[in-house]
Write a structure and sequence with these properties.
elongated, alpha/beta, homodimer, Pyrophosphate--fructose 6-phosphate 1-phosphotransferase (chains A, B), metal ion binding (chains A, B), metal-binding (chains A, B), Rossmann fold, about 425 residues
């Protein structure tokens, strides 16, 4: 049994399959006889020395993580700044690692987390503390550099494509006397990957979604409204998928129209879909409906992509192997070796080439008119939603999601003051 | 082969399983060697003499209807008024029936449709036209009288409970540094059945959903905000499920706060969840997120309840049998014969006892504090989400939903002027 502890932490927004990565990490480490601690609420739990002893969990519960959405140990939104600005925090991390004999640190997150893992690894070297830092990819935004895709994205993409296809059937059935324009708001503040994946729901100019609004293209309201109108006149209705990150020519987020006030004099929270719905109704006079799935799109484990699940498990397994085999400042990434039939493998990539980068939709994925996706995009996106991996359901008709015991490891250091 | 035609029409908002009813209607009628026409866009298609010849569809496609959401022939929102006020329309219906030898009329809808079917049956009798009118129950609102539940509701309820359970896991994982209050808006303008069904996602004071806002109870903002605050302080986060139909003490719909204007000076469409989110953020200062699934909740065939699907098929089959056996002005309803294990049967009930009635949540289903459901509600709701009935998926990772050919029957009458 190797001496030392492996510490696993989740970071940033959770996904339908990040716990599948955690499950693979813990199972692989157990096979290698390595003790695994998990940080409560991500890096915050390291700073606070709130660690969880995963050896207290049954193997059945660890396996059940693979079909449970959310973040089993808690995650957090906490971006560490530069080593200079946040030195005290980085040093505290090393102190906690040292106190608990952490030799392997696995940080499961997106761009920011890759950056944090890289900095931690540099500081450890500076202090001569023997630590192997491995980033583990995860984000529904699919904006991580180098990796062909990010675990979590495929399931959110499948949710998006299926939901848009289903809602479009509803709209089509009712359009003659009811809603003519339906707007679905997809997550993606800077990159349009999820909105683009809605394009898989249909093909050709008359199939929904008819208009996809991507943050990679400037939003032109007049042009959008004209296209919505001509679609309604041609098809009978219009299904729009809008990325939350679209901006106008002045660079203003449409979602931040801001300062809305309702009749009670209260500020109103907005969003892209609600704003566009108002504009369609006011200018075109159509009945309009809109959906904002919000967290539903990133927690819909019931509709996970099997491909995505397999990616999530594979990067978890590889991350443990990389760490125990002595790699440092690396991340297992997904490499596509063929589109059709889809084939992929996991390879190691340096965190320095991933940290703080952001991958947006390539121009070649966006239809010339800006409102749809190309065959190239379909070839890329298609395989990522392939296959189903439903969770087991209980006799009560609900998925059997597991809740871990999350037994705390006693703190050894003085409390940390934020 | 009985002489005459059976006409089937869908009415009002569609559901995840209304096509399963259509599938059962057509299959049962085919077995009895009866010709089935379907009205395009519901009763509007009858008025316009836009009828579809279902004999042109393959048996495989008719079977596939059972796993396809939306309304395969189109539905409509068109409430006929009294026989006096809308006499010309009722007479037109009889004219179209006569022209196409329609002897059996099956109208698949909610309260209003039951009323229409009843009136049509009365007018036919008045004109000595031999017609058997059968209402077929359907509505995600579950507000139909007499029947134990309405086909379509169970699947929407399952979608609601599963989605809230999944989103709650997301919120729980992130609450320490991110969203503390999450608000899910459920359909149900007058009855809180869907919001109540979210209660199946958890049990006890600390499990999500923590607060359910029902239209059957007056919304008291100060009390709601105090409860949200105490929940966050106790649990770390608060998941709220709000029915779109909640009203304040003056009877005003919270969703109709109305008159919102954004910073561009445009009117903003609102909703209950967006309004409540603004109030929580402004008064409690918590980070808040909200979801509005809108049509997704009534078209999510991928997450249908098997029980609901079986109900939908059974009422379709029974409706054809009732009609062909000579019943008139009746509706097949679901009768519950036992809670645990759940048992049910279909019985005939007179449309006169169903038309224009609205079934709201019984007081005994609502927790004393007004923000949750009772054991009695769980016993009622639980069985309705039992069992899964996923659609087949294609190699592309998407459900294989069918699109019918919908071949038009040539019109025999002069065009109708609305």
């Amino acid at each position: 049994m190797p001496s030392g502890t492996l510490l696993y932490a989740q970071s940033g927004g959770v996904t339908a399959v990040i716990n599948a990565t955690a499950s693979a990490v813990i199972q692989t480490a157990r096979k290698r006889k390595v003790k695994v601690l998990a940080a409560r609420d991500g890096i915050l739990g390291v700073l606070r020395e709130q660690l969880i002893d995963t050896s207290k969990e049954s193997i059945a519960d660890i396996r059940a993580l693979a079909h449970t959405p959310g973040g089993a140990f808690g995650s957090c939104r906490l971006k560490l700044k530069s080593l200079e600005e946040d030195r005290a925090k980085y040093e505290r991390l090393i102190d906690v690692f040292r106190a608990h004999d952490v030799r392997w640190f696995l940080y499961n997150g997106g761009n920011d987390s890759a950056d944090t893992a890289l900095k931690v690894s540099r500081l450890a070297a500076e202090y001569d503390y023997p630590l192997h830092c491995i980033g583990v990819p995860k984000t529904i935004d699919n904006d991580l550099a180098l990796t062909d895709c990010s675990p979590g994205f495929g399931s959110a993409a499948k949710y998006t494509a299926v939901s848009v296809r289903e809602a479009a059937l509803d709209v089509a059935a009712m359009a003659e006397t009811s809603t003519k324009v339906f707007i679905y708001e997809a997550m993606g503040r800077h990159a349009g990957w999820l909105a683009a994946s809605a394009g898989l729901a249909g093909e050709g100019p008359d199939q929904a979604p008819h208009l996809i609004l991507l943050p990679e293209r400037t939003f032109d309201e007049a042009d959008f409204l004209a296209k919505a109108k001509s679609t309604v006149e041609r098809v009978g209705y219009c299904v729009v998928v809008a990325s939350e990150g679209i901006r106008d020519a002045d660079g203003r987020f449409i979602a931040d129209a801001g300062g809305r006030t309702d009749s009670f004099g209260h500020k109103q929270l907005g969003g892209v879909a609600s704003h566009l719905a108002g504009r369609v109704q006011d200018t075109l006079g159509y009945k309009v409906h809109w959906a904002l799935p919000d967290y539903l799109q990133r927690s819909a484990r019931h509709l996970a992509s099997r491909t995505d699940l397999e990616h999530a498990q594979a990067v978890g397994t590889a991350a443990v192997e990389y760490a125990l085999d002595g790699m440092n400042a690396m991340m297992p990434v997904i490499v596509r070796t063929a589109d059709a039939p889809y084939a992929w493998k996991v390879e190691a990539a340096p965190l320095s080439k991933i940290a703080n980068k952001e991958k947006t939709l390539p121009a070649g994925f966006i239809r010339r008119d800006g409102y749809g996706i190309t065959a190239k995009a379909r070839a890329y996106l298609g395989p990522l939603i392939h296959g189903e991996a439903p969770p087991p359901y209980g006799a009560d008709g609900l998925p059997r999601y597991v809740t871990l015991k999350n037994v705390a490891v006693p703190a050894l250091l003085a409390p940390w003051h934020e």
